[in-house]
Specification:
Blueprint (H helix, E strand, L loop, with lengths): L4 E4 L5 E5 L1 H12 L4 H11 L2 H12 L12 E10 L2 E15 L2 E12 L8 E15 L5 E16 L2 E7 L1
Length: 167
């Protein structure tokens, strides 16, 4: 029964978010369980306004600065925090095709982070992400896609640097 709203500019950056905290409070209140306040605090860390903005911007901050046609390419950089680890995505997008009102966009990204993170113990993160996304042209909403990520990092554990490779 709750709702929230947000503003977004033409570049896909989220401005203000309205009603999210109230919606979360209403959800927890309706659970009618002991320790609802603890649940709210825990949920608040995952579903707070900053995380919401970041997640939405990841989906929408792909738009080119000018109209494009199939074969055209544009570049966007995105800085996010993933579980306390700052990550940079250097993204290259190519409009593969347009079918009706659906744009098929090829995605090629380089991921990096040289910073240490006290909460994750990870450092020297680098990797790639490739795949395709489909967008509804009138609304700009991502409909579906397939992205493959490969990431390498070093994780500190008990005084050792452990290499971690993920696909």
């Amino acid at each position: 029964g709750g709702q929230f709203s947000f503003t977004m500019d033409e570049k896909g950056h989220v401005g203000s978010v309205y009603g999210m905290k109230e919606m979360m409070e209403r959800m927890v209140a309706r659970l009618n369980v002991p320790n609802a306040e603890v649940i709210m605090q825990s949920m608040g860390k995952s579903f707070d306004e900053a995380n919401f903005k970041q997640n939405i911007e990841q989906s929408f901050a792909v738009y080119p600065d000018n109209p494009v046609k199939p074969g055209d390419t544009w570049v966007r950089a995105l800085n996010i925090s993933s579980n306390g680890l700052p990550m940079k995505y250097d993204n290259t997008y190519t409009l593969n095709s347009v079918t009706g009102s659906i744009a098929n966009v090829k995605v090629s990204s380089k991921l990096s982070s040289g910073a240490d993170s006290s909460t994750t113990g990870a450092k020297d993160v680098n990797g790639t992400m490739t795949g395709d996304m489909n967008y509804d042209i009138p609304t700009g909403i991502p409909l579906n896609g397939n992205l493959n990520m490969k990431m390498n990092m070093k994780v500190s554990a008990q005084g050792q640097q452990i290499p971690v490779n993920m696909d």
